[in-house]
Design goal:
434 residues; Outer membrane efflux proteins (OEP); four-stranded antiparallel beta sheet; elongated
Length: 434
Amino acid sequence: MNTKQHIAFIRNAAQYVLLNLLITTALYAQPPQTLTIASAEECMTKANLQVIAAKYGVEAARGAVVQVGLITNPNISIEQSAFNARTGEFFQFGSSDNSNTEIAVQQLIQTAGKLDAGIALAVANAETSELAVRELLRGLRYSLRSTIVDLHFNQEALTFYDSSIAGVRKTVQAAEQMYGQRTILLSEVLRLKSLEFTLENERLDLQTEADTLQSTLRLLLRDTTTTAQYIPQLDQAFLDSLRPSALNLAQLLAEARERRSDVQLAQIQVNAAESNIALQKALAVPNVAVGGRYSRSGSTFPDYFALTASIDIPVFNRNQGNIQSAEAFALAGRSTLEATKRGAEQDVIAAYRLSTRFDALFRTFDRSFVTAYQDFVRNMTASYEKRNVSLVEFTDFYQSYRTSMLQMNQLGRDRADALEQLNYSVGAIVAPLR
């Protein structure tokens, strides 16, 4: 590739990148909306379809509690003789000698505390549904908060690239003028254009990530538009002031065991399994049906009244299989509960260590150097244009500047993500980003 072809390639590539940026800008012409973590959580809780569906499941489980607590309806049966073979008559209502009417009423009485055991199991199932909603919300809140944090730092990085690209582009224009005056070599212009093209490509990658994060936010917030754009509002000073090392690990572990919805869910499932054991044992005891019977003329004497009672004899079926199954499920539930507790503790320990490490590294850097660095960049740019520094010195410095600024941005993002991971692992907001 000769020099002219090289210049044409770089120009076409830059135009392609610029075209993509213009298209993206046109697509997202809708004014962006500011978004805080608190407002986003409130909106998601009310609008997210997964949450709405889960809440309907809770209402269904509560209805089951009401149903289980209802007493069995009484049963009434009426029997009327239809045909008298002696007289050949149908439905002889008038004569008690030639027809018969019988009425029976029966009420099932549940024994051995079946009603209470059934209610206890239904209540446990309803609580399971409620805790499942809380666990769903825990995961969705973590996804929402992490997305907002990532988008915040992504947009800070985009702002850095916008400023850097504008500065480099100005320098390229100055270099082209100097090349036209034959005061610098073409190789210097090409190297500066290559730097500009690299920055444009990296910015495009960041913009692609931003688009993905915006899509995730629209999905979580049930935003039906396809062009809505959000600008996260984070209190950076408050975020910088958070110190995870000031938190007590033992207290965090205790809080996780108490507050985490997955631990509570495992516990309530053990309670439900134990209630099911009580219910299955109660079902082994037969119920009693009591009632009354009246026969007008079908018994040994007219107008016969009697009390009735019936009960199954538990000779063959004593509900042994269901009792055995319920006890096995209870043992499995206890093992699951123990594993969930241990897993929650390990999550907290890992998140605590990660957040303290990122925070310690974050505090080793003096953030005031960012302003000094930016001033130095302007001075370096001016020095290059005045030919006080060489191209190699300028580009090496710019690469170092870019790397340092992006690493600072990534460190801040990793630290904030680690704090959100700590909140998620504990099941409570112990590091309140806002």
